[in-house]
Design goal:
It is built from 6 helices and 7 strands, in the order αβββαβαβαβαβα. It is of the alpha/beta class. Pfam families: DUF218 (PF02698).
Length: about 200
Amino acid sequence: MTRVFGAVVLAALLLVASTAAAIWYTARGDSRPSSDAIVVLGSAQYNGVPSSIFEARLEHALSLWEDGVAPVVVTVGGKAAGDAFTEAEAGRDYLVDAGMPADSLLAVPEGVDTLESMRAVGTAYAERGWSTAVLVTDPWHAMRAERMAEDAGMEAQSSPTRQGPAVQTRTTQFRYILRETAAYLLYRATGESVAGAPGIG
C-alpha cells in the first residue's frame, strides 16, 4: 500500500512538473503564421480604458496586424455587473484610437473567463468560415488559451506579449506559472475554467 501511495504521489508530482514546464516552454514561443485573425484575450478595463495588462496585449496585437500577420484583430470579453463597457468594446475602441480602421476589427463582447471567450470566438469564426488564429495574451496564459481555442474549433497558435505587469519580475512570473498549472490541469480534468486574476480566468 505504501508503494502504491508513493507511486501515485510521484505520478502527480511529475504531472504537475511537466505541465509547468510545458507552460514555461509555450510562454517562450512566438508564433506568427499568416492567419484569419489575431485574437486578443480580454482583461480588466476601467470605464472603457484598458488596464495595463490589457493595454500590453492590445499593443502587441497592433504590432502583429501592422506586420501583416492577419487582416483582422478580434477583441473578446464581456463585462462585470455595473460596468458600462465590455472588455471587447474597450479593446476595439483602444485600437481604433491607435489608428486601426474599424473594418479591420471585430469585437466579440462575450465571456467572463477564457473558456467562455474562446467558445464565443469559435462561434464567430464558424459564422465567417475562418479557421486559423494567432492568440495574444500573457506568456503564462498562452498554453491554456491555445488548448481552449482548439477545443472551440480553431487552429490556434500564440504570440504572447512581452510587456506588462505579468512579466515584470521573476516572482510574478513564478506565481503566474503556478496558477496556470493548476488552472490548466483542472480544465483538462473537468472541462471547466477558473475565474481568477487577470489572465487566469
